[in-house]
Design brief:
Layout: H1 6-11, E1 33-42, H2 43-56, E2 61-66, H3 73-87, E3 91-97, H4 106-114, E4 118-122, E5 142-145, E6 149-153, E7 173-178, H5 181-197, E8 218-224, H6 233-244, E9 248-253, H7 260-271, E10 275-281, H8 287-294, H9 297-302, E11 306-310, E12 318-322, E13 326-330, H10 336-340, E14 345-350, H11 352-366, E15 370-372, H12 374-378, H13 382-392
Parallel strand pairs: 2-3, 3-4, 9-10, 10-11
Antiparallel strand pairs: 1-7, 1-8, 2-5, 5-6, 6-7, 8-14, 9-12, 11-15, 12-13, 13-14
Helix pairs in contact: 2-3, 6-7, 8-13
Length: 398
Protein backbone atom coordinates (compact mmCIF):
# COMPACT_ATOMS: atom_id res chain seq x y z
CA UNK A 1 0.00 0.00 0.00
CA UNK A 2 1.32 3.44 -0.88
CA UNK A 3 2.26 5.72 2.03
CA UNK A 4 -0.37 8.31 2.84
CA UNK A 5 0.16 11.88 1.71
CA UNK A 6 -0.37 13.61 5.05
CA UNK A 7 -0.54 17.06 3.51
CA UNK A 8 -3.47 15.87 1.39
CA UNK A 9 -5.16 14.46 4.46
CA UNK A 10 -4.76 17.68 6.45
CA UNK A 11 -5.94 19.89 3.61
CA UNK A 12 -8.90 17.68 2.81
CA UNK A 13 -7.71 16.51 -0.60
CA UNK A 14 -8.34 12.82 0.12
CA UNK A 15 -11.77 11.33 -0.58
CA UNK A 16 -14.15 12.21 2.21
CA UNK A 17 -15.39 9.71 4.74
CA UNK A 18 -18.87 11.01 4.00
CA UNK A 19 -19.94 9.10 0.92
CA UNK A 20 -22.94 8.67 -1.36
CA UNK A 21 -25.81 11.07 -0.93
CA UNK A 22 -24.21 12.93 2.00
CA UNK A 23 -22.00 14.86 -0.41
CA UNK A 24 -25.09 16.05 -2.28
CA UNK A 25 -25.76 18.49 0.57
CA UNK A 26 -22.58 20.44 -0.23
CA UNK A 27 -22.35 23.04 -2.96
CA UNK A 28 -18.54 22.78 -2.90
CA UNK A 29 -17.59 19.24 -1.82
CA UNK A 30 -13.97 19.73 -2.88
CA UNK A 31 -13.52 22.24 -0.05
CA UNK A 32 -14.41 19.67 2.60
CA UNK A 33 -11.75 19.33 5.31
CA UNK A 34 -11.44 16.03 7.16
CA UNK A 35 -9.78 14.93 10.40
CA UNK A 36 -11.07 17.74 12.63
CA UNK A 37 -12.28 17.66 16.19
CA UNK A 38 -15.23 20.03 16.69
CA UNK A 39 -17.12 20.65 19.93
CA UNK A 40 -20.50 22.40 19.95
CA UNK A 41 -20.68 24.86 22.86
CA UNK A 42 -23.92 26.22 24.32
CA UNK A 43 -23.99 29.85 25.38
CA UNK A 44 -21.44 31.57 27.60
CA UNK A 45 -21.51 28.92 30.30
CA UNK A 46 -19.63 26.50 28.04
CA UNK A 47 -17.98 28.88 25.57
CA UNK A 48 -16.25 31.44 27.79
CA UNK A 49 -14.36 28.95 30.03
CA UNK A 50 -13.10 27.07 26.95
CA UNK A 51 -11.99 30.27 25.23
CA UNK A 52 -10.25 31.63 28.31
CA UNK A 53 -8.48 28.30 28.87
CA UNK A 54 -7.21 28.37 25.29
CA UNK A 55 -5.95 31.95 25.72
CA UNK A 56 -4.22 31.09 28.99
CA UNK A 57 -2.45 28.17 27.27
CA UNK A 58 -1.17 30.23 24.32
CA UNK A 59 2.54 29.89 23.59
CA UNK A 60 3.09 31.83 20.34
CA UNK A 61 0.17 34.00 19.23
CA UNK A 62 -3.50 34.85 19.67
CA UNK A 63 -5.82 36.28 17.04
CA UNK A 64 -9.14 37.54 18.40
CA UNK A 65 -12.01 39.34 16.72
CA UNK A 66 -15.38 40.24 18.22
CA UNK A 67 -18.21 42.44 17.02
CA UNK A 68 -19.06 43.48 20.58
CA UNK A 69 -16.58 43.91 23.41
CA UNK A 70 -17.73 45.28 26.75
CA UNK A 71 -15.74 46.47 29.74
CA UNK A 72 -17.88 44.43 32.12
CA UNK A 73 -17.08 41.30 34.12
CA UNK A 74 -16.67 39.02 31.10
CA UNK A 75 -14.84 41.69 29.11
CA UNK A 76 -12.46 42.28 32.01
CA UNK A 77 -11.75 38.53 32.27
CA UNK A 78 -10.72 38.47 28.61
CA UNK A 79 -8.70 41.66 28.96
CA UNK A 80 -6.73 40.31 31.91
CA UNK A 81 -6.12 36.96 30.20
CA UNK A 82 -4.83 38.69 27.07
CA UNK A 83 -2.59 41.07 29.02
CA UNK A 84 -1.13 38.19 31.03
CA UNK A 85 -0.20 36.28 27.86
CA UNK A 86 1.20 39.42 26.22
CA UNK A 87 3.49 39.95 29.20
CA UNK A 88 4.71 36.38 28.70
CA UNK A 89 5.82 37.19 25.16
CA UNK A 90 2.76 35.96 23.22
CA UNK A 91 1.99 38.00 20.08
CA UNK A 92 -1.63 39.17 20.19
CA UNK A 93 -3.84 40.85 17.61
CA UNK A 94 -7.30 41.99 18.70
CA UNK A 95 -10.02 43.67 16.60
CA UNK A 96 -13.45 44.90 17.62
CA UNK A 97 -16.21 46.66 15.68
CA UNK A 98 -16.71 50.36 16.27
CA UNK A 99 -20.51 50.29 16.14
CA UNK A 100 -20.93 46.98 17.96
CA UNK A 101 -18.56 48.07 20.73
CA UNK A 102 -19.85 51.62 20.91
CA UNK A 103 -19.16 52.96 24.40
CA UNK A 104 -16.13 50.75 25.06
CA UNK A 105 -13.95 52.94 27.33
CA UNK A 106 -10.69 54.17 25.85
CA UNK A 107 -9.00 53.08 29.08
CA UNK A 108 -9.89 49.46 28.31
CA UNK A 109 -8.23 49.69 24.90
CA UNK A 110 -5.25 51.68 26.21
CA UNK A 111 -4.47 49.02 28.82
CA UNK A 112 -4.36 46.38 26.08
CA UNK A 113 -2.07 48.49 23.93
CA UNK A 114 0.20 49.32 26.86
CA UNK A 115 0.74 45.57 27.29
CA UNK A 116 1.98 45.36 23.68
CA UNK A 117 -1.24 44.04 22.14
CA UNK A 118 -2.04 45.27 18.64
CA UNK A 119 -5.63 46.52 18.79
CA UNK A 120 -7.67 47.67 15.79
CA UNK A 121 -11.09 49.30 15.80
CA UNK A 122 -12.96 48.05 12.73
CA UNK A 123 -14.80 50.61 10.59
CA UNK A 124 -14.71 53.64 12.93
CA UNK A 125 -17.91 55.62 13.27
CA UNK A 126 -17.11 58.35 10.77
CA UNK A 127 -19.96 59.06 8.32
CA UNK A 128 -17.64 61.09 6.08
CA UNK A 129 -15.51 57.98 5.47
CA UNK A 130 -16.68 55.47 2.82
CA UNK A 131 -15.77 52.49 5.00
CA UNK A 132 -17.42 53.67 8.19
CA UNK A 133 -19.57 51.37 10.34
CA UNK A 134 -22.70 52.97 8.90
CA UNK A 135 -22.13 51.03 5.68
CA UNK A 136 -20.13 47.99 6.85
CA UNK A 137 -19.45 46.14 10.09
CA UNK A 138 -17.00 43.49 11.18
CA UNK A 139 -19.43 40.96 12.61
CA UNK A 140 -16.95 38.06 12.79
CA UNK A 141 -16.32 36.23 16.05
CA UNK A 142 -12.99 34.42 15.74
CA UNK A 143 -10.42 33.26 18.26
CA UNK A 144 -7.27 31.47 17.02
CA UNK A 145 -4.59 30.27 19.42
CA UNK A 146 -1.21 29.13 18.07
CA UNK A 147 -2.84 27.92 14.85
CA UNK A 148 -3.90 24.81 16.77
CA UNK A 149 -7.33 25.64 18.18
CA UNK A 150 -10.02 27.98 16.92
CA UNK A 151 -13.41 29.24 18.05
CA UNK A 152 -16.24 30.78 16.08
CA UNK A 153 -19.99 31.17 16.39
CA UNK A 154 -22.44 33.79 17.60
CA UNK A 155 -21.07 34.87 20.99
CA UNK A 156 -19.66 38.32 21.60
CA UNK A 157 -17.62 39.31 24.66
CA UNK A 158 -20.02 40.65 27.27
CA UNK A 159 -22.00 39.81 30.40
CA UNK A 160 -25.26 39.33 28.51
CA UNK A 161 -23.97 35.95 27.25
CA UNK A 162 -22.90 34.74 30.70
CA UNK A 163 -25.23 32.43 32.68
CA UNK A 164 -27.71 33.85 35.13
CA UNK A 165 -27.76 35.18 37.79
CA UNK A 166 -24.35 36.81 37.21
CA UNK A 167 -25.01 37.38 33.50
CA UNK A 168 -27.91 38.05 31.18
CA UNK A 169 -28.50 34.43 30.23
CA UNK A 170 -28.65 35.02 26.48
CA UNK A 171 -28.88 31.81 24.48
CA UNK A 172 -26.24 31.38 21.78
CA UNK A 173 -24.07 28.72 20.14
CA UNK A 174 -20.33 28.56 19.52
CA UNK A 175 -17.87 25.94 18.26
CA UNK A 176 -14.34 24.92 19.26
CA UNK A 177 -12.28 23.52 16.39
CA UNK A 178 -9.02 21.60 16.15
CA UNK A 179 -7.65 20.39 12.84
CA UNK A 180 -7.35 21.77 9.29
CA UNK A 181 -10.42 24.00 9.58
CA UNK A 182 -8.42 26.12 12.04
CA UNK A 183 -6.21 27.18 9.14
CA UNK A 184 -9.32 28.21 7.17
CA UNK A 185 -10.55 30.29 10.10
CA UNK A 186 -7.15 31.89 10.38
CA UNK A 187 -7.18 32.69 6.68
CA UNK A 188 -10.55 34.43 7.21
CA UNK A 189 -9.06 36.37 10.12
CA UNK A 190 -6.09 37.46 8.01
CA UNK A 191 -8.34 38.70 5.23
CA UNK A 192 -10.49 40.78 7.58
CA UNK A 193 -7.41 42.07 9.46
CA UNK A 194 -5.89 43.28 6.20
CA UNK A 195 -9.12 45.15 5.39
CA UNK A 196 -9.59 46.81 8.77
CA UNK A 197 -5.97 47.32 9.85
CA UNK A 198 -4.48 48.05 6.44
CA UNK A 199 -1.58 45.67 7.07
CA UNK A 200 -0.99 42.02 6.27
CA UNK A 201 -0.11 39.30 8.76
CA UNK A 202 3.16 37.63 7.84
CA UNK A 203 5.49 35.09 9.37
CA UNK A 204 2.96 32.50 10.49
CA UNK A 205 3.44 28.83 9.63
CA UNK A 206 0.27 28.08 7.69
CA UNK A 207 1.50 24.58 6.77
CA UNK A 208 2.11 23.41 10.32
CA UNK A 209 0.78 19.84 10.76
CA UNK A 210 -2.29 19.29 12.89
CA UNK A 211 -2.81 16.40 15.18
CA UNK A 212 -4.62 13.46 13.61
CA UNK A 213 -6.17 10.80 15.81
CA UNK A 214 -9.30 8.83 16.52
CA UNK A 215 -11.03 11.89 17.99
CA UNK A 216 -10.31 13.93 14.84
CA UNK A 217 -13.13 12.50 12.75
CA UNK A 218 -15.30 15.51 11.91
CA UNK A 219 -15.65 17.05 8.45
CA UNK A 220 -16.60 20.49 7.24
CA UNK A 221 -15.22 23.81 6.06
CA UNK A 222 -15.37 27.47 7.00
CA UNK A 223 -17.09 30.22 5.03
CA UNK A 224 -16.36 33.94 5.15
CA UNK A 225 -17.42 36.83 2.95
CA UNK A 226 -14.62 39.39 3.17
CA UNK A 227 -13.88 39.22 -0.55
CA UNK A 228 -16.42 40.41 -3.09
CA UNK A 229 -16.51 37.03 -4.86
CA UNK A 230 -17.36 35.29 -1.58
CA UNK A 231 -20.16 37.65 -0.58
CA UNK A 232 -23.01 35.15 -1.09
CA UNK A 233 -21.19 31.89 -0.32
CA UNK A 234 -23.13 31.07 2.86
CA UNK A 235 -26.39 32.05 1.18
CA UNK A 236 -25.59 29.65 -1.66
CA UNK A 237 -24.61 26.89 0.80
CA UNK A 238 -27.94 27.28 2.61
CA UNK A 239 -29.94 27.22 -0.62
CA UNK A 240 -28.09 24.17 -1.90
CA UNK A 241 -28.60 22.17 1.30
CA UNK A 242 -32.27 23.17 1.59
CA UNK A 243 -32.90 21.94 -1.97
CA UNK A 244 -31.48 18.54 -0.99
CA UNK A 245 -33.46 18.24 2.26
CA UNK A 246 -35.57 15.10 2.56
CA UNK A 247 -36.85 15.09 6.14
CA UNK A 248 -36.09 18.06 8.38
CA UNK A 249 -34.87 21.65 8.15
CA UNK A 250 -34.22 23.20 11.56
CA UNK A 251 -33.02 26.79 11.82
CA UNK A 252 -32.34 28.95 14.86
CA UNK A 253 -31.57 32.53 13.87
CA UNK A 254 -31.58 35.74 15.88
CA UNK A 255 -32.25 38.18 13.03
CA UNK A 256 -34.38 36.24 10.58
CA UNK A 257 -35.34 38.14 7.42
CA UNK A 258 -34.98 35.52 4.66
CA UNK A 259 -35.00 36.81 1.10
CA UNK A 260 -37.26 35.61 -1.68
CA UNK A 261 -34.89 32.83 -2.75
CA UNK A 262 -34.76 31.29 0.72
CA UNK A 263 -38.51 31.62 1.22
CA UNK A 264 -39.12 29.91 -2.12
CA UNK A 265 -36.93 26.97 -1.14
CA UNK A 266 -38.66 26.69 2.25
CA UNK A 267 -42.00 26.47 0.44
CA UNK A 268 -40.75 23.87 -2.02
CA UNK A 269 -39.27 21.83 0.82
CA UNK A 270 -42.62 21.76 2.62
CA UNK A 271 -44.29 20.69 -0.64
CA UNK A 272 -41.86 17.74 -0.75
CA UNK A 273 -42.96 16.71 2.73
CA UNK A 274 -39.99 18.19 4.62
CA UNK A 275 -40.61 19.52 8.14
CA UNK A 276 -39.37 23.13 8.22
CA UNK A 277 -39.08 24.69 11.69
CA UNK A 278 -37.53 27.98 12.72
CA UNK A 279 -36.75 29.33 16.19
CA UNK A 280 -36.69 33.12 16.49
CA UNK A 281 -36.54 35.45 19.52
CA UNK A 282 -39.73 36.56 21.22
CA UNK A 283 -37.83 39.66 22.37
CA UNK A 284 -34.88 41.23 20.60
CA UNK A 285 -32.05 43.60 21.39
CA UNK A 286 -32.63 45.22 17.98
CA UNK A 287 -36.31 46.16 17.92
CA UNK A 288 -36.38 47.37 14.31
CA UNK A 289 -35.07 44.00 13.06
CA UNK A 290 -37.56 42.18 15.26
CA UNK A 291 -40.48 44.01 13.65
CA UNK A 292 -39.13 43.63 10.12
CA UNK A 293 -38.74 39.89 10.69
CA UNK A 294 -42.32 39.48 11.86
CA UNK A 295 -43.60 41.10 8.68
CA UNK A 296 -42.69 37.86 6.86
CA UNK A 297 -44.30 35.43 9.30
CA UNK A 298 -47.62 35.34 7.47
CA UNK A 299 -46.05 34.31 4.15
CA UNK A 300 -43.92 31.65 5.84
CA UNK A 301 -46.80 30.24 7.87
CA UNK A 302 -49.06 30.03 4.83
CA UNK A 303 -46.34 28.03 3.07
CA UNK A 304 -46.22 25.53 5.93
CA UNK A 305 -43.14 26.78 7.78
CA UNK A 306 -43.55 26.42 11.55
CA UNK A 307 -42.24 29.31 13.66
CA UNK A 308 -41.33 29.03 17.35
CA UNK A 309 -40.49 31.93 19.63
CA UNK A 310 -37.76 31.57 22.24
CA UNK A 311 -39.29 32.77 25.52
CA UNK A 312 -36.22 33.14 27.76
CA UNK A 313 -34.26 36.35 27.47
CA UNK A 314 -32.62 36.92 24.09
CA UNK A 315 -31.91 34.12 21.62
CA UNK A 316 -28.81 35.16 19.64
CA UNK A 317 -27.80 31.89 17.90
CA UNK A 318 -27.19 31.39 14.17
CA UNK A 319 -27.49 27.64 13.67
CA UNK A 320 -28.94 25.31 11.05
CA UNK A 321 -29.36 21.52 10.74
CA UNK A 322 -30.72 19.57 7.78
CA UNK A 323 -31.61 15.87 7.86
CA UNK A 324 -29.16 15.36 10.77
CA UNK A 325 -26.46 15.32 8.06
CA UNK A 326 -25.64 18.94 7.18
CA UNK A 327 -25.18 21.70 9.72
CA UNK A 328 -23.92 25.24 10.14
CA UNK A 329 -22.92 27.46 13.03
CA UNK A 330 -21.39 30.91 12.92
CA UNK A 331 -22.06 34.65 12.87
CA UNK A 332 -24.31 34.75 9.79
CA UNK A 333 -27.85 35.99 10.25
CA UNK A 334 -30.36 35.16 7.53
CA UNK A 335 -30.75 38.76 6.43
CA UNK A 336 -29.45 41.10 3.76
CA UNK A 337 -26.93 42.80 6.04
CA UNK A 338 -25.07 39.56 6.72
CA UNK A 339 -24.92 38.60 3.07
CA UNK A 340 -24.29 42.05 1.56
CA UNK A 341 -22.52 44.30 4.06
CA UNK A 342 -21.02 42.66 7.14
CA UNK A 343 -17.83 40.65 7.47
CA UNK A 344 -19.09 37.24 8.64
CA UNK A 345 -17.67 33.77 9.25
CA UNK A 346 -19.26 30.39 9.83
CA UNK A 347 -18.75 26.65 9.67
CA UNK A 348 -20.48 24.33 7.24
CA UNK A 349 -20.50 20.79 8.64
CA UNK A 350 -21.05 17.58 6.73
CA UNK A 351 -20.96 15.25 9.68
CA UNK A 352 -23.81 13.13 10.99
CA UNK A 353 -22.54 13.23 14.57
CA UNK A 354 -22.30 17.02 14.70
CA UNK A 355 -25.50 17.60 12.71
CA UNK A 356 -27.34 15.20 15.03
CA UNK A 357 -26.01 17.15 18.02
CA UNK A 358 -27.29 20.38 16.50
CA UNK A 359 -30.65 18.72 15.79
CA UNK A 360 -30.87 17.35 19.32
CA UNK A 361 -30.15 20.81 20.73
CA UNK A 362 -32.78 22.27 18.43
CA UNK A 363 -35.41 19.73 19.50
CA UNK A 364 -34.63 20.45 23.14
CA UNK A 365 -34.93 24.18 22.54
CA UNK A 366 -38.20 23.85 20.59
CA UNK A 367 -39.73 22.23 23.66
CA UNK A 368 -39.09 25.47 25.57
CA UNK A 369 -40.65 27.66 22.87
CA UNK A 370 -44.11 28.91 22.11
CA UNK A 371 -45.32 28.26 18.57
CA UNK A 372 -46.40 31.33 16.63
CA UNK A 373 -49.46 30.40 14.58
CA UNK A 374 -51.42 31.92 11.73
CA UNK A 375 -54.03 32.93 14.32
CA UNK A 376 -51.38 34.98 16.16
CA UNK A 377 -50.51 36.61 12.87
CA UNK A 378 -54.14 37.49 12.15
CA UNK A 379 -54.65 38.98 15.63
CA UNK A 380 -51.98 41.65 15.18
CA UNK A 381 -53.05 45.18 16.00
CA UNK A 382 -53.13 47.89 13.35
CA UNK A 383 -50.09 49.48 14.97
CA UNK A 384 -48.13 46.24 14.79
CA UNK A 385 -49.07 45.71 11.15
CA UNK A 386 -47.92 49.20 10.18
CA UNK A 387 -44.71 49.01 12.21
CA UNK A 388 -43.78 45.65 10.70
CA UNK A 389 -44.56 46.79 7.15
CA UNK A 390 -42.63 50.03 7.60
CA UNK A 391 -39.47 48.49 9.12
CA UNK A 392 -39.42 45.73 6.50
CA UNK A 393 -38.94 48.42 3.88
CA UNK A 394 -35.55 49.20 5.43
CA UNK A 395 -34.40 45.57 5.61
CA UNK A 396 -31.33 46.14 3.44
CA UNK A 397 -29.97 48.74 5.85
CA UNK A 398 -30.80 47.13 9.20
Amino acid sequence: MLARNWRSILLGDEPTEATGTDLDYLSRPRELRHHNRIAILRSGGESFPAMLAAIEGAKRYIHLSSYIVRADTVGTQFQRALIARAKSGVLIRFSFDSLGSFGLPEKYVAELRDAGIEVVESFPLAPWRPRSAFSRRNHQKILIVDGAVGFTGGLNIGDEYAPEPEGGGWHDMHAMVEGPIVYDLERAYRRSWRRVAGTSIHGLDSSAPHQVGAAFRHSGYSVDNVGLRSRFRMHHDYLHAIRRAKHTISIMNAYFIPDRGLRRQFRRAVERGVSVRVIVPSVSDVAVVYHASRHLYGRLLRHGVRIFEWPERMMHAKVGAIDSTWGTIGSYNLDARSFLHNFEVGLVLLDRELASTLQSNFDSDVAKCREFTIHDWQRRSARERFLQWFTYGFRYWL
